[in-house]
Amino acid sequence: MRLFSTPTEFGIIGVGQVAHGIFAFGQFARGVVAVGQVAIGVVAIGQVAFSLVGVGMGGVGVVWFGGMFGVGGRGLGLLVIKLLPGLEQARTPPTLAPLDAVWQGQTRGFVHLDVMATASGPVLAHNGQAVPVKFIPQVLFALRNAATSSGLREIYASLRREGTHVVCDALVEVPGTRANPRGLASVIAHVLKFAVLVVLAAAWFVAFTEGTDRLKVALAAVGSQ
User: Fold this and answer.
1) What pLDDT digit, counting tens, does each position of 201-215 carry?
2) pLDDT-derived band at 129, boundaries 50, 70, 90
3) What is the pLDDT of residues 81-99, one digit of tens each?
4) How many Å from the N-terminal Cα to the C-terminal Cα in the chain?
5) What residues contact 137, with CB distance under 8 A and at least 6 apart?
């Protein structure tokens, strides 16, 4: 394999307006790792990203996408539609730690807390009072998503003290507390989500294997006019 890609041969590194390679950097980039204004790859970063795992202003991540607008199996962003469930549902409760002991930094572990709705979104609470914890971003997003979509009211929160803050780095559902909609509408919604995910995966495969080749043909046609 060549170190640098050519227009007709795939290499380790691709650089250019239309770039392809294991590592591709360009206005239109396609590679295992692609970075560009439009990026197509296993991992893609771009203004528009089409990937398995991607980050961009907008785009699609079959497994995960982070950005302002997009669709993904899972994701994080202003308006990212998620096609796969995100919050782990526990079969058995985890071993619990006392909230006071965690708060004083004597131990770390899961604490059984309430989920309380506020004007700024759901927060963790104990005996009707908000518990001021610092969430890692993906955990906060999962909490908001679950509280909004299923009316979550209880949770097992993994807490640890870091300096002056108590950090929440994981959430596990209390068994039996999630509202599980049933009936034809719920079945149809799950089938449609799965169908969309399959279509996105197929579209990504086509774009990844043939995307820049077709783009080169289109650019050549425009340039010859």
Assistant:
1) 888 888 888 765 555
2) very high
3) 888 765 555 557 788 999 9
4) 35
5) 76
